[in-house]
Structures
1.
Amino acid sequence: MSNFSQTVNQDLSLSEESLQIDYLSGSNLLSNSLDGQDVILGLTQTPKTLPARYFYNQRGSELFEQICELPEYYPTRTEAQILQQYAQEIAQMTGACELVELGSGSSTKTRLLLDAYQALGSKFRYVPIDVSGEILVESARQLRQDYPKLDIQGLVGTYTQAMEKLTPSSFPSRLIFFLGSSLGNFSSQDCDRFFSQIKAALDAGEYFLLGVDLQKPKHLLEAAYNDSQGVTAQFNLNMLEHLNQRFAGNFDPKLFEHWAFYNEEFNQIEMHLRSLQSQTVCLEALNLKIKFEAGETIRTEISRKFDKDEMKQQLQAQGLKPLTVWTDPKQWFGLFLAQKSEVN
Ligand SMILES: C[S@@+](CC[C@H](N)C(=O)[O-])C[C@H]1O[C@@H](n2cnc3c(N)ncnc32)[C@H](O)[C@@H]1O
């Protein structure tokens, strides 16, 4: 598949050729030394922000799995229903493939696709990509048990790092897929940048499968991000623990509270952490002191909610021609299959 000139294999008993996990060098994920420039930038601007990827240490990944099971959190089960219904059609449309998944997490929904490709009978490969090495390794182990013949070539790193490393596939085609509405975490500008990275990682005629959350009434959205068991609040606050671990910090999560609301002007859920008092926090490894006023917030996530037709237009404008959009009966979630155009 790809030629990773600077990769490191972890202790995973990865002697078999068909299971390999590479840690992309430069991601600095082998130690606690993520370089943190994005943290410095986010916490020194007004209003303060942090990149959503810092949700995902091991605890964060576990909490996200719990969120997926919550009664209020409809996206995971709705997208899974759509995949359940249409995975076979997707496999038939794309044919034998290298399946590259961005932000693979537990790879749970992915199994619906793997089953469909397996049923086609032709050879295929699975390339999970995730910034959280812990969850990627754990899910690769589980997939290995359940699909003993599956060729898995995982990459630990960011979307950008991983896509830059992909070289043309040796398979008849490549399908890059991005589920769970993680696209919603990007601003519109970052979305365009991301689509051009996708396009660069595909040859003409290859495929992109995208799952996104669609616009719906505010009360349904706000309930999904303010669950009654408080798991989303724990997930949000865990970002502070993650920063403490990574950057020798002294955030006290008890001095912050979870706050999530739907911003109708921008069609986005915003998750914030609100400081309960005026305080100064230090991230020693970054040589950074951050002052908070009482009530001041850090925005930890945007989760944009999309319009089906606008998304089709945006994909088309980026040279990713939409072939089909599948939705659920309530039209809450959309799964878009696009193909890289021959001429750009
Ligand atoms: C919301 S979860 C979605 C997991 C799974 N795809 C799903 O649909 O349930 C996002 C996943 O993407 C990973 N992730 C977040 N930001 C990332 C980034 N910039 N690069 C690579 N992976 C990232 C996280 O570690 C997490 O496993």
Note: Residues 37-63+224-304 form one domain.
2.
Amino acid sequence: MRKLLLRLTITAVLATTLASAEGYSQGERILDMQKMAQAMQDIQSGFFYNNADIIKAGVKDLKETIVKIRPTDAEVNNKDIYEKWLQNDLKMTNKIQKKIIKKSEDIEERFSDGDAVQALQAYSKIASRCMQCHVRLRKW
Ligand code: HEC
């Protein structure tokens, strides 16, 4: 009995550790979203101050963060099939992620080529991708 209890405890501890190593909580996602909002603001400042370094830094933050976005553990484990289907739209998420990465590379390239208008266009395409997910996923 003691041995069994010990084994159960070890399994439980292991399971929790594994879950937290892999998990993605709502709190973490909110932080990532705030990081991306900041990156977008940095890029915008870069346009207005005509500063390529600020733009580069913003693009880097955005690219590093967008790849982390995914459904949270609670959403993945949701027992309500309809909600789960709504919240776990990985196909849409992957597509938006690719577009945002591509467009942020465009911003950097166009801006350093001296084409601020095209850079700004790529920027606004990113903003509309952010909103696409917010509207579809969150009905915002
Ligand atoms: C794949 C879907 C998806 C994409 C793409 C996405 N978001 Fe979000 N965003 C969410 C969800 C879901 C929430 C709500 C977070 C939560 O409460 O779990 C959110 C919340 C936010 C918030 C509010 C965070 C807070 O403090 O409550 C901001 C700001 C935000 N997103 C910015 C952005 C920006 C900027 C982009 C684009 C660069 C973006 N999001 C792209 C899904 C997305």
Note: The two ends are 53 Å apart (CA to CA).
